Amino acid sequence: MTCLLCEKNILPEVTWRTMLYPEAKVICDACNELLVAIDGPRCTRCSRSSTKGNCLDCIHWEKTPSKDSLARNYSVYPYSNFMQEIITKWKYQGDYELGNVFKKTFRIHFKRMIKTTSKAYVAVPIPLSEERQEERGFNQAAMLAEFLPIPKANYLERIGSEKQAKKSKEERMKSANPFRLKKSLNKPVILVDDIYTTGMTLRNAARVLLEQGCPNVISFTLVRS
Q1: What are the boundaries of each domain within the chain?
Q2: CA separation (Å) from 126 to 31, 163, 192?
Q3: Tens of pLDDT along 23-45?
């Protein structure tokens, strides 16, 4: 096997455990050490590093006239330089297999989050526009959702094709809701996406779901920017 990140050979570890429960490694130990998950105090609402319980952004969201449509976000990794390189290669250079680097850790952190979350949730990935889907060849959020051991529902549809990453925070806040629901969903939802930046994309999706009868929406994201 070769590491999906640095492409160096992975030397198999031979122990009684690996003999009884063989598991193919997709990343070498050196690269794995650079993938450090969020540790220490975090905002209980959005996973930003914070010692105050809720960060200022989440306090602001609570004070908005329509109130916060997203009950909570849990992210696995911070947006380090190393993570940025991986995301760029994975999303924008079409390296689909690279997403499997996150599979094991994504599942581990999901189980940590789900301890305080009802198991009745359905995973709904944030969709790409048709243009972006064709350009990249896959939806990274849908790939992450497939890693989770709960039902999936691709009920959201993106109307516009603009990239949120190129917008300022103020522009994102003023943007029209780019989502619509193809089919109503009366179960609580876990929205799945790769990066939480301002949270606007996830809140727009959550608002559509709540308006159509969904009782509660939280999100599970790979990275907290």
Answers
A1: 1-34, 36-224
A2: 28, 13, 6
A3: 678 899 999 999 999 999 999 99
* CATH class (in words) of the domain with range 36-224: alpha beta
**Under 8 Å between Cβ of 111 and 105:** no
Q: What gap in Å lies between CA 55 and CA 21, rounded to an integer?
A: 42
Tokens of 127: 């969709």
- With cut-offs at 50, 70 and 90, classify the pLDDT of residue 64: confident
Q: How many CA atoms lie within 13 A of 143 on its CB side?
A: 21
User: What is this structure's pTM?
Assistant: 0.89
Structure tokens at 143: 């790939």
What CA–CA distance (Å, rounded) separates 176 from 160? 9
3-state secondary structure of 135: helix
Q: Are 46 and 224 in contact (CB under 8 A)?
A: yes
In sequence order, which residues have a C-beta less than 8 Å from that of residue 76 and are 6 or more positions away?
37, 38, 102, 105, 106, 109, 221, 222, 223
Cβ proximity of 180 and 157 under 8 Å = yes
